[in-house]
Amino acid sequence: MRRMAIGQEPLEGVFEDPRMEGIGLRRCLQCGRCTGSCPARSVFREFSPRMIVLEILEGRVSDLLRGDLIWLCGQCYTCHLRCPRGNSPATVILVLRELALMRGYARDKVRGIAERCGRSIWERGVNFHEEGSRELPDRAVADLKEALKRGGYDSFLKRLGVDLS
Amino acid sequence: MSRERYYLFKSCILGAYYPRVEDSLRIVFDRLGVRYFDDSNQSSCTGHGYHSGIYPLRSTLEVNRRNFSLARTAGCDEIVTSCVTSYATLKEMKKFLKDTVDIYHGSEVIHENRDRLSEMLKYSLEGIRLVTHHGCHYTKIFYEDVRVGGPEDPMLLDEIAVSLGAEVVEYEEKGLCCGMGFRHLLLDQEYCRDIALKKLTSIKKVEPDLILVHCPGCLLTLDRFQPILEEETGVELRIPVIHYAELTALLLGANPDEIGAAAHQTRIDRVIERIRG
Question: What is the number of CB-based contacts under 8 A between chain A and chain B?
Answer without folding.
Answer: 167
